[in-house]
Amino acid sequence: MTHSGGRLKDLAARMHAQKQRRFRRNHNAGVIRCLANATLAWCQSLLSPAGLAHCLSLACFLVQVILINVFLVQYLSPTVLLTLTVDVPLLLHLAWFWRVECAYRAAPTQWFCYSWVHAAKVVVLFCRVMPRLASATPSVSEEFLRGSDFSINASYFQDLFSPTMLANLLLITPVFYALLMFRASKAIFGSLSKRVTVDLIMQYDMLWHVVIDMVDQVDMFYYARLAEWVGSEALDQHKRSLVLIQTAVPFLLFFSMVLQAQAFPGVVADKWSIPVGERVSLSLDSDASGKDGSRRPSDSFLRLSQGQAEQVQAARTQDSARMPPHETSFSDRVSTGGVVQRKSTGGLGTERAWFERQERARRRRLQGVMNLIQRHNIIIARKRSAIGSIFLIDVPFLTIRVWLWALLQHTYFPGLGIKNGLCIVLNVMQYTLVALASKESFKRIKREIAEYITRFHSSTLNEEADQDSPELAAQDEGETAPDGASTPERQDSVPSLSASKEQAQQMKQALHRVGRDSARGIGICVYIVVLALAFGAGFIIAKGETVVELFIAWVKDAIENQDQR
């Protein structure tokens, strides 16, 4: 017995090992097949504009990260490579979400992380790298050096560590942003991109506004070499003012680049509560099992709740009420072969067919609501980009340029200063339209969700109404009860009136529920205030003694002025 038991154990172990090896082979084959299919699909996507945009965005990000790290290592130390702890995961994230359907969900995260890390790098490049770069063109005239010298001319391009190369390297950022926006617009609009709508116009309007602002930021990057092109005379006369300008520019660059992270649809969104139903079965307890107690195949779905069963019964009653008198019922048509629909015992096939139609309609309606929310995020991003552009780019940059124009005795005014003035006017004019579009879009989404809840989740509304106001429900029953002494015409009109009144009541409850559960996103002014407070606290901690000395000197001057008066 012991020997036979041991043989049985060995046999069971060998069978188990064979099963495990078969499972491993199948699993490995499945992984290899999935990788091969994904590689083939990726290669096929390169033939589309969205796939080409994905490859170009990867190339732009990789080239910019590598060359900026070369600058930082050359002029600082290898410890700056700690930024690779963010750049490498971001590169993997960019490469992983290559499908255009995933662009709307992945691109906001990618642009947000990129903006924060890039803003920190730009501040370091402005303060520690750009002033130390040797000009590749020492014989160039002073007039040419004033302002931007974006160029790919051979005389400037031959030296890697030059101001022109660093500025041209920073100009990759608007290209990267435009590629991400293109992929996101393909994911949001799809075939609807050929139709002119308000949100599509705002998408491209935001695109060119942000791209021009990024070029303006790169032009301000040349103020790190302000002493090189203002002249020695102006430097001697207005040294404190020029130092103050060079101190303010990196703060403005960081603030504007960080808040440009929100100039992308999906980074900041309003909060919506959308009930998403699960597919359920219409099998009742009476039809749930056969005579032997075994369950039918249809029971693999979930069961109907009591509210859903009442919903199905009410819908079927309404359908039969709408049926013309001369039209035969569904059961009669099935018995006569009028429709190609199999009817199972107890009307289960009828219930399932009706519910599947309702499920398809629910999913189409839900997909429409989701698409409206995605397009609403474009309007939110456009409004935030307008505020950031006005208060963090155009107004402060124009102030600095006018100030410098006055210091240089009206001898030099950059051309991008005209851009600042025009963009202020354009953004102020468009902000009213953007705010109105945002308000109307919010109301439309709210009503669409309320209609979705009323049609497909009315049972939850009834439960909430019963819990909130049972007296109101009883009062509504008393009001909708038909009068016994009414005429036949009045009796026929009472059900339609009561049904319309009930639908209006449900719609009112749904709107109240959506308004209670939805919430606006945090305003961009909150981010500006929080960043300003954080910068102020950091400056006080880093320069505590200087701040205290300045404060004491200011108090002494104020006291002396009061004594003199």
List the helices and strands and how they pair.
Elements: H1 2-45, H2 49-75, H3 84-96, H4 103-129, H5 142-145, H6 154-157, H7 163-170, H8 172-189, H9 198-220, H10 226-229, H11 232-237, H12 239-259, H13 306-322, H14 330-336, H15 348-407, H16 416-456, H17 458-468, H18 470-480, H19 488-517, H20 524-542, H21 544-564
Helix pairs in contact: 2-3, 2-4, 2-8, 3-4, 4-8, 4-12, 8-9, 9-15, 9-16, 12-15, 15-16, 16-19, 17-18, 20-21
Explain the overall architecture.
Residues 463-480 have a biased composition (Acidic residues). Residues 303-320 have a biased composition (Polar residues). By secondary structure, the chain is mainly alpha-helical. Among the domains are: 1-45; 46-268 and 364-450, no CATH class; 527-564. 74% of the residues lie in helices and 0% in strands. The chain has helices at residues 2-45, 49-75, 84-96, 103-129, 142-145, 154-157, 163-170, 172-189, 198-220, 226-229, 232-237, 239-259, 306-322, 330-336, 348-407, 416-456, 458-468, 470-480, 488-517, 524-542, 544-564. The protein is globular and about 90 Å long. The N and C termini lie far apart (117 Å). The relative contact order is 0.07. Mean pLDDT is 75; it is low at 20-27, 136-147, 152-156, 279-307, 319-346 and 471-495.
